[in-house]
């Protein structure tokens, strides 16, 4: 799992968060360092056309500053003779983050990445939404991936601390992560495709964490 943090070529970087504000309930100011105990994360359930059973997983970085979602079969395509249903894939992951006692966390930055072969005129979008179970506060993004493209792509969302959605102190709340890829031919004439992974299979989506101490 350590290889999950290898680098790769980048051809697209966007910053456009759309979010609902939240705050660390009854927590102290944000800490510079994460908790010393290793954070454990369990993939409770997965569903969707972009993550059939056995094609997605999660992993926490050794420094507790991020976790990743890993996909191996997340692909959309569009072109002559290809059904329009092949142009949309989604994945819903339900994960349980085992937070060390006395701490809470929020997602403050997300890196989405993959590979694309998009002909000029094709229309591609990457969408995402995540929230804690039972809470109305959510973070939602929708990004256009520009064509033409024949390389790795990267989209980065940064969430201001004041707008972050925090895990409630002292509660067990699963985190729901929903992602989606959409692709249509548009005015293009050839076949295009887009993946939510990387060409070497090393890294996909990374969620960067901020930590705070609970009372």
Structure characterization notes:
- The protein has 215 residues and is mainly beta.
- Helix content is 0%, strand content 48%.
- Strands 2, 4, 5, 6, 8, 11, 13 and 14 form an eight-stranded antiparallel beta sheet that branches.
* Main sheet characteristics: 8 strands, antiparallel
Instruction: Kindly report the average pLDDT value.
Output: 81
Order of helix and strand elements from N to C terminus: EEEEEEEEEEEEEE
- What is the first-to-last residue Cα distance? 33 Å
- Binned, the helix content reads under 10%
Give structural attributes.
mainly beta; 8-stranded antiparallel sheet; 215 residues
Helix and strand arrangement:
Elements: E1 18-19, E2 30-31, E3 40-47, E4 56-60, E5 66-71, E6 75-78, E7 88-98, E8 103-118, E9 123-132, E10 139-145, E11 149-158, E12 175-184, E13 192-195, E14 205-213
Antiparallel strand pairs: 1-10, 2-14, 3-7, 4-5, 5-14, 6-13, 7-12, 8-11, 8-13, 8-14, 9-10, 9-12
Briefly say what this structure is.
The chain is built from no helices and 14 strands. The protein has strands spanning 18-19, 30-31, 40-47, 56-60, 66-71, 75-78, 88-98, 103-118, 123-132, 139-145, 149-158, 175-184, 192-195, 205-213.
